[in-house]
């Protein structure tokens, strides 16, 4: 009998999977868990005129996955920045297919309060795909710099779970560096300095040097 788990990280766009739970995914991989990534959109059409950027981003995602220790990457290829116009069932299906094929124990997805509407659509569809009967035991929502932190108002990210990533924050930085199309200069949130600063702040809340924060959405236990 093994304690190894199957982990699926669902992101709307290339880079969400590392900006959010990247260091935690690296910790999963380091202890022998099978880590898989799903990118729901192609992440380019509404930002770039050149369709070749789609394949470039996929190469970056694969390089990032290798650095995190992920076993596989899937691409949903739905339209970028347009998931609010895509029928909900189509977004559901992309995530359900991954859940059916991989049978994950743990799923990471976007927070419901992100300013990016693609993120909130993925959040809602993940809850559908991981409903009772899916076999998924645990679902957690992660935060993404330049989306979760830019959402004002009463609905805000409210972490309930922290993971000490002191030993994997460098891995996260190295993995994110694969995304040459997405890195920005400080003080932009998608910069190395800002990512480290955010991990330090979350670590301060958790009592560690560096941490990633999550909202626990689902916990299905057979025992108390």
UniProtKB/TrEMBL annotation:
Its EC number is 3.5.1.-. It comes from the Archaea. Keywords: Hydrolase. The keyword Disulfide bond does not apply. Signal peptide: none annotated. One of its GO terms (molecular function) is hydrolase activity. The keyword Glycoprotein does not apply. InterPro entries: GlcNAc_PI_deacetylase-related, LmbE-like_dom_sf. It holds the Pfam family PIG-L. This is PIG-L deacetylase family protein. The lineage of its organism: Archaea, Methanobacteriati, Methanobacteriota, Stenosarchaea group, Halobacteria.
